[in-house]
Specification:
With 523 residues, the chain is α+β, with helices and mostly antiparallel strands. It has 4 domains: 9-150, no CATH class; 156-254, Immunoglobulin-like, CATH 2.60.40; 258-413, no CATH class; 414-523, CD59 (Ribbon), CATH 2.10.60.10. 24% of the residues lie in helices and 24% in strands. It is built from 15 helices and 24 strands. It has a 5-stranded antiparallel beta sheet, with no helix packed on it. A 5-stranded antiparallel beta sheet has the order 19-18-21-20-22. Strands 2-3-8-5 form a 4-stranded antiparallel beta sheet, with no helix packed on it. A hairpin with a 2-residue loop joins strand 20 (448-458) and strand 21 (461-470). The protein starts with 8 loop residues before the first helix and ends in a 5-residue tail after the last strand.
């Protein structure tokens, strides 16, 4: 089916408004003013372009949401306000070349004439005055989004070898990275790596095994417009490059979503795999304010901000959005930050398969960072736990019981009868008190004791991690306390203590002076 901007007068009016008449799309459905992620997708490798408009008439099309976002207006308010103007504009501009824009259209002159008609219609109407805007404010938003919407220059998938391919993105793309490209593999390979892109699988719908939704952001240095990916086959998953499909989607507000770089770098994974997470809190808050396809996690933030009306403590939207829940498919050995700074802008809580990144609202503030860097130890040698960035769920503003529902805690509880001791568990806390306040109690497996690890980040900042640890391994690591690796109060120092009684690492298990001394140690 051809994708057109002005499909027909009535089809786009139906998208904008909630008519009471029965139509094929909304027959016998309740029309609700709910904005959801649009179903407008472009299936690139099918050879055809398909414009899908499903659901109730309350769903606004992508270009309305984009312009509302650009102008910082409510999507539904804008859609209802422009209904009369849109009807007359359709009649006028369709006669000036704004109809029958099919896929692959690259007639830039025709597109410019159509946009000029739009701009002229805006200036002649009451629309701008209704929103207290000027034409000079509206024109750039039309340029940024409508031009890309009309120009259906599509990305191209180019295989380089059987294992490596690259995607050449369209030269003209929606502003603010309001797009995504989904790579659909016939099966899930052992390893999937990508460059010059981030993954947002956490927010994708109808995702199947072997799918990866890739986006870009303004911190990507390579502006070539190319995304490269590599696969490593397994015994159960092999395919030819011709079997790979890509789907171009201009309805994804990627700039507002939590994004992850690629990991791991190899199979089996390295002792520590490094990756980064990008999150623009200000863009997410703007998406909430404009009601443009808000994911359910963001709607929770808006609900929390209104709880004070019921006598509960008010939680600011930005504060709520500054917390990111991390859910791995299996329990990992450790997950820590690699950002070494005396003004460390976030902390990590949790253990096993669930963690909480608390940014203390630093993200999104003026001159604040939008990128966070981490190191992940799968513990593959012991548990065979393995997954990639597409399997990890990143949840902005997770529910309050996020850490309490950790799968790892339930698994460890089953081992309690055969072990007999439990340990305080926390990751990268700034003090023993923080560990007690925010950590959890973990029953240990047979042969395990309790470990405390102290990393000196700067002279004034140390990070403390506590967990169950195999006694032999803990003893071996603690021997490093007598080596140059353990230098109290010197940046880069790593010191460890071990003990074997119940909750023996709960308090201050170490004394730091000129020398690092462990208390209650079985060494």
């Amino acid at each position: 089916m051809d994708a057109t901007f002005f499909l027909t007068k009535w089809s786009l009016l139906i998208i904008l408004l909630c008519f009471q008449e029965k139509t094929l799309a909304c027959q016998q459905q309740v029309c609700r003013r709910r904005r959801q992620i649009s179903d407008e997708i472009v299936k690139v490798t099918d050879g055809t372009v398909k414009l899908e408009l499903r659901g109730c008439t309350g769903r606004s099309p992508t270009w309305v949401r984009q312009i509302a976002y650009c102008l910082n207006l409510s999507t539904i308010e804008m859609a209802l306000t422009i209904k009369d103007w849109y009807a007359s504009t359709y009649e006028k501009c369709s006669k000036q070349g704004c109809s029958n824009y099919v896929s692959g259209n690259k007639d830039n002159d025709a597109i410019k004439n159509c946009i000029a008609c739009w701009k002229g219609s805006v200036r002649e109407s009451e629309v701008t005055r209704n929103f207290n805007l000027t034409a000079q404010e509206v024109d750039p938003c039309i340029e940024k989004y409508i031009y890309a919407f009309l120009n259906k220059d599509l990305p191209i998938l180019n295989p380089e070898t059987r294992l490596k391919s690259h995607i050449d993105l369209a030269d003209i793309r929606p502003a603010e990275y309001w797009w995504s490209v989904r790579v659909e593999l016939p099966c899930k390979p052992k390893l999937f790596k990508y460059w010059n892109a981030y993954c947002i699988n956490s927010f994708a719908r109808d995702l199947k095994e072997g799918d990866y939704v890739l986006v870009q952001n303004n911190l990507i240095e390579d502006k070539s417009g190319r995304i490269t990916f590599f696969v490593q086959f397994s015994n159960t998953c092999t395919f030819e490059p011709e079997e790979v499909r890509i789907i171009w989607d201009e309805s994804t507000p990627a700039q507002s979503l939590v994004q992850s770089s690629a990991y791991p770098s190899q199979f089996p994974p390295a002792a520590e795999e490094n990756f980064s997470v990008y999150f623009d809190v200000d863009a997410a808050k703007r998406l909430i304010d404009t009601d443009g396809g808000v994911p359910k996690e963001f709607r929770r933030a808006r609900w929390q901000a209104k709880k004070s009306a019921r006598g509960k403590r008010q939680i600011e939207e930005k504060t709520a959005l500054a917390r990111i829940g991390v859910l791995f498919p299996c329990s990992v050995r450790s997950f820590r930050t690699t950002d070494i700074d005396v003004k460390l802008p976030y902390r990590i809580y949790g253990y096993g398969d669930r963690f909480l990144i608390d940014t203390d609202t630093i993200l999104g503030q003026e001159n604040g960072t939008k990128i966070m860097n981490f190191a992940l130890d799968y513990g593959f040698d012991e548990t065979r736990c393995f997954f990639d960035s597409g399997d990890t769920k990143l949840v902005p503003n997770p529910p309050s019981n996020w850490l309490k529902t950790s799968k790892a805690r339930h698994i460890m509880t089953e081992k309690k009868a055969s072990s007999g001791i439990s340990c305080a568990t926390c990751v990268n806390m700034r003090s023993d008190k923080d560990c007690l306040d925010r950590g959890v109690v973990t029953p240990c497996a047979p042969g395990e004791g309790c470990q405390t690890e102290v990393r000196q980040i700067t002279r004034n900042l140390k990070l403390i991690t506590k967990a169950c640890k195999q006694r032999i391994a803990c003893q071996a690591e603690s021997m490093g306390n007598a080596s140059p690796q353990c230098r109290p109060k010197e940046p880069g120092s790593v010191c460890r203590c071990c003990c074997s009684s119940n909750m023996c690492n709960a308090g201050n298990q170490h004394h730091t002076g000129d020398f690092f001394i462990c208390k209650n140690s079985f060494m």
